[in-house]
Specification:
- With 362 residues, the chain is α/β, with parallel strands linked by helices.
- It is 38% helix and 13% strand.
- It is built from eleven helices and twelve strands.
- Helix 1 packs antiparallel against helix 2 and helix 7 crosses helix 8.
- The chain is globular and about 55 Å long.
Length: 362
């Protein structure tokens, strides 16, 4: 499927905020905590601690704080300095070790995105545990907060439970307004569960291609675009002993889309690729790309915060802008501590600002 054929809606959503509750007190606390931490104000200082408590109290008691008026200005978004068409978001995978997916945590992620100026988020529901009714509630909440949501499961196409998870995931994904994407991994336990494996056998590749085409058809029937992500498998096969995701994309039908992880070819992939080879593949296949995970790898490992990456972010942003692929989701190596997970997001935004890529509204 080419960019001109996409079902993804890249048009700007109508602005104008509906009446909706402000973020919970815990979210207000987190926002204040991060600002204090960012400016190196010690929480161990009694005076700072007292100020923090006072600020939280004032937020919770402020007259009219329980709703926003219809005339209020829309929440400003993080903007790319040179590429105003690009939309920065994040994947909730960054927080799942500390905040397992639930209705409540999903709403907190939406709150965080709205507060910080993110345009969208990838809602990662690894096993599709959210119910359809919960997904509808999250979708309505995100609509009020003017945050776009895509939906992702964490199964590989050859996993035994892929279909049961994907079928439920498609129903959940369909309730979100935009960008109307449903994502899975390409490889699963057949690669990640065997450290000696580099890629797929010829028979596995044939089955994977068939499953990917079927997944794309099911997604399309529900008004969605299916995308698969490059992961632990080799990016390029050797043509004899193992096959990689490039081989899969050469055989799948045009309705199967791609979600690029910018760090995986240099970190989790069993056969690390060269930056030049990934750059060439990206340029040649960008018409099949629908969004990316913005992630950093150094010395063969994914990082907990954004930093320099073998495939330069500047090159990625230019290509995305030139080919009208606006959706960029920050993905970080997950940590178990909740405050550290939010701090890592702050550091990543600081990095993008320090490199001159973005401006934030906060």
């Amino acid at each position: 499927m080419t960019n001109n054929q996409r079902t993804v809606n890249y048009q700007t959503k109508p602005r104008g905020r509906k009446t909706s509750p402000l973020p919970s007190l815990s979210n207000a606390y987190r926002s204040i905590f991060l600002k204090i931490k960012k400016h190196n104000y010690s929480l161990l200082n009694p005076l700072n601690g007292a100020c923090l408590c006072l600020l939280v109290l004032l937020i919770s008691c402020q007259p009219g704080s329980q709703q926003q008026t219809a005339n209020e200005e829309p929440m400003q978004k993080i903007q790319f300095n040179d590429y105003p068409d690009l939309k920065l978001g994040f994947t909730t995978q960054n927080f799942l070790q500390a905040m397992p997916v639930t209705l409540e945590s999903s709403k907190q992620f939406v709150d965080y995105a709205a507060e910080q100026g993110y345009a969208w988020l990838e809602l990662r529901d690894p096993d599709a545990v959210l119910t359809l009714e919960e997904s509808k509630e999250i979708a309505a909440y995100a609509r009020e907060k003017e945050v776009e949501v895509s939906y992702a499961i964490q199964k590989g196409l050859l996993d035994d439970d892929f279909w049961s998870t994907f079928e439920k995931g498609v129903k959940n994904a369909a309730v979100f307004d935009s960008p109307k994407l449903v994502r899975s991994l390409a490889s699963g336990a057949e690669i990640s569960g065997d450290t000696t494996r580099q890629g797929w056998t010829a028979d596995e590749l044939a089955e994977l291609v068939q499953r990917a085409d079927s997944a794309a058809s099911l997604a399309q029937a529900n008004g969605l675009q299916y995308v698969m992500e490059n992961g632990a498998e080799a990016f390029f096969g050797d043509g004899t002993n193992y096959y990689g995701i490039a081989d899969a994309f050469s055989q799948v039908g045009e309705d199967v889309g791609w979600q690029l992880d910018a760090a995986n070819p240099f970190s989790v992939s069993r056969v690390h690729a060269s930056p030049d080879s990934i750059s060439t593949f990206l340029q040649e296949h960008i018409d099949n790309l629908f969004y990316i995970h913005l992630k950093s790898a150094q010395q063969g490992a994914a990082k907990e915060t954004l930093t320099a990456n073998p495939l330069a972010f500047s090159e990625i942003f230019q290509l995305l802008s030139d080919h009208q692929v606006p959706y960029i989701a920050i993905e970080l190596q997950a940590v178990a501590d909740q405050e550290q997970a939010f701090a890592n997001m702050e550091k990543s935004i600081d990095y993008l600002q320090s490199e001159g890529f973005i401006n934030t509204p906060n």
